[in-house]
Specification:
42% helix; L-fuculose-1-phosphate Aldolase; 220 residues; binds zinc ion; single chain; 8-stranded mixed β-sheet
Length: 220
């Protein structure tokens, strides 16, 4: 069952791996949807499996409490992080967790990325925060990430990596690329020693656009 959703998760996971957003079996990808009976389900990558040999049936189906509904393999250790985000971000239906190089540099330094680029503000929603460190799979990590993500579409995880979210998988993947592009530019701009932010009045207009497109009732 749920073949198309499994295929979608598998394809995104393989792209994430091929584009170098993770090394080896790290990272994870999920898709949230409602089945024909109105049940909330999440298709998520399994724990500790190579992406290049992964098959659609290796993708595990869980409910919003993280309980396995279908699949032989163990769902990702970060499953509760994914379901936790789906519970509070009602418009989000896809989540990609990566360990990207430039995003991780910023996460190691513990620096928030301010609003430096127009597309960062209109699509990610403004500054990119760093969730305080917590162990993978811990309830503390879920709380830290949800708080730092707020209403935006990307967040960094201290000493770990990044999370991007979207209304669908394509959007979540774009956010993943946009986050890494922004982090890369920020690292080089920091090296140049001078950073000009997006002018405040323009950032305000762009944030209003972001809210109109991606916004939900949840506030920052
Ligand atoms: Zn990770």
């Amino acid at each position: 069952m749920w073949e198309s959703q499994k295929q979608e998760v598998l394809k995104a996971a393989q792209q994430m791996s091929q584009k170098g957003f993770v090394v080896g079996t790290s990272g994870n990808v999920s898709l949230h949807f409602r089945d024909s009976e109105g049940r909330d389900l999440v298709a998520i990558t399994p724990s500790g499996r190579d992406y290049d040999t992964m098959k659609p049936n290796d993708i595990v189906m869980v409910d919003l409490e993280g309980q396995r509904v279908e699949g032989e393999l163990t769902p990702s250790i970060e499953t509760m992080l994914h379901t936790g985000i789906y519970k509070v971000r009602k418009k989000v239906n896809a989540i990609i967790h990566t360990h990207p190089i430039y995003g991780s540099i910023i996460a190691v330094a513990g620096l928030e990325i301010p609003a430096i680029l127009d597309d960062q503000v209109t699509q990610i929603g403004g500054e990119i925060r760093v969730a305080p460190y917590a162990l993978s799979g811990s309830p503390e990590m879920t709380g830290n990430v949800i708080a730092a993500l707020g209403p935006r579409n990307a967040v960094l995880l201290a000493n770990h990596g990044a999370i991007s979210v979207g209304r669908n998988m394509r959007e979540a993947f774009t956010m993943c690329q946009l986050l890494e592009k922004t982090a890369r530019i920020y690292v080089f701009a920091l090296g140049l020693g001078k950073i000009n932010l997006v002018p405040a009045d323009a950032a305000e207009v762009e944030k209003a656009y972001f809210k109109a497109v991606y916004g939900e009732s949840q506030t920052d």
